[in-house]
Specification:
This protein is mainly alpha-helical. The protein contains 22 helices and no strands. Among the domains are: about 110 residues, Alpha Horseshoe (Serine Threonine Protein Phosphatase 5, Tetratricopeptide repeat), CATH 1.25.40; about 55 residues.
């Protein structure tokens, strides 16, 4: 006997004894037995959703909920639990009889709660995935009308509209998708980026995506980064500039704006945005510096990379390993002479793998191959497993 079934049996025995002793009336006993069956079935449902119930326990729970509902067909709780159990089983195994019975149970639930958005939404779920899709769409629309501010429901409705638009190509579904996502995003901005990425699969035009974008920092940021990803650089820059204006103390929008301006070839405007991001960063400036310099390097903006590093040295003289950053930037900009001069001032240039690698690279570019070999060999004594030094040593030996 399963755990929920055993628990129900014990409670049934207690109620039977109470009835026999005359402590409760027959009507009270029947009601108590029905509620026990519903509670037991609900427990199994909760366990099933966690993956903790097997098929036999679910079947027993369905039988208990069914019996409770048959005792009082107008009682909504047993109808709800029965419908949910049948819907759960349908997700595991297609059974036409379960669809029909679940529909009847959910209809009884709706009759008892005519203004319940949840009752309509669950019935819509049943019909959309296992029954009459057209009826499911009607019920979903009714649920949305009853719950205009229920974000989880609107999110599910938006996902459903998106799926329909993607699979059918019907323009009306595309309109429903963008309208529903706009409603979701209007309440909060935590799913804006996800929704715009989804909608871009239907239509990647800036005007279309703006329709689902809330009038907020989060909205402008998400729109700008999505448009950047899609290659709409000027529209992306406009959205990101709006985000910076709204909340100038946040570095992310400024960083993204700087990257967009770099891709547009506007070095001066990129420098302004990237520097602003560094100025307002408070939590992890070192990490952001690495991202900024990486963005410049990836786009071969070596002059801008050098300019930013020199500004960092002036603005924050104690910035960690600023001399290594300066040396690397000089090497990237094609100035190994200055890079070597900077690195020779470090007392740990032999023991620090990064300093040694950069110094050896500078010597190599200046044609001082023997010096580069000596630096590399000495550094490998202190860091024998450094992959970059080992690769450089092999190259110098060829």
């Amino acid at each position: 006997m399963s755990r929920p079934t055993l628990s129900l049996a014990r409670r049934l025995l207690g109620t039977t004894l109470a009835l026999a002793l005359g402590w409760v009336s027959l009507a009270q006993a029947q009601r108590s037995l029905r509620l026990m069956r519903v509670d037991s079935a609900r427990t199994v449902l909760e366990m099933a959703r966690k993956g903790e119930s097997n098929a036999l326990e679910i079947a027993d729970a369905i039988a208990s909920a069914r019996e409770a509902w048959q005792q009082d067909p107008e009682e909504p709780e047993s109808a709800e639990v029965l419908g949910e159990l049948l819907l759960f089983r349908l997700s595991e195994e297609a059974r036409p009889a379960d669809v029909a019975e679940a529909a009847r149970a959910f209809e009884a639930w709706q009759r008892a709660h005519p203004v319940s958005a949840r009752a309509r939404a669950r019935t819509a779920h049943l019909q959309l995935y296992f029954g009459d899709r057209a009826r499911g769409e009607e019920l979903l629309a009714e649920a949305l009308t009853l719950a205009p501010h229920e974000r989880p429901l609107w999110s599910w409705a938006a996902e459903e509209a998106f799926t329909r638009a993607l699979t059918t190509g019907n323009p009306s579904w595309k309109e429903r998708a963008v309208e529903r996502w706009a409603e979701v995003n209007r309440g909060a901005g935590d799913r804006v980026a996800e929704s715009l990425a989804q909608l871009a699969l239907l239509d990647d035009s800036p005007d279309f995506l703006r329709r689902a974008t809330p009038d907020s920092y989060a909205g402008s940021l998400a729109l700008g980064e999505q448009l950047w990803d899609l290659g709409h650089l000027e529209a992306a820059a406009q959205a990101l500039e709006d985000a910076v204006k709204r909340e100038p103390w946040r570095p992310r929008a400024s960083f993204s704006l700087g990257c967009v301006r770099l891709e547009q070839g506007s070095r001066s405007r990129a420098a302004e945005a990237l520097w602003h991001a560094l100025e307002v960063e408070r939590r992890d400036r070192r990490r952001l510096v690495a991202r900024v310099l990486g963005a410049c390097f990836d786009r071969q903006a070596f002059d801008l990379q050098l300019d930013i590093v020199e500004r960092i040295a002036q603005r924050w003289p104690a910035f960690p390993d600023i001399d290594l950053l300066r040396a690397r930037a000089r090497l990237d900009a094609g100035d190994p002479q200055v890079a070597r001069s900077i690195l020779r001032q470090r007392s740990d240039r032999w023991s620090n793998p990064e300093a040694a690698f950069l110094l050896a690279t500078a010597e190599r570019r200046l044609g001082e191959l023997e010096s580069a070999r000596q630096i590399t060999s000495r550094a490998l004594e202190a860091a024998p497993r450094d992959a970059r030094l080992e690769a450089l040593r092999r190259e110098l030996e060829q």
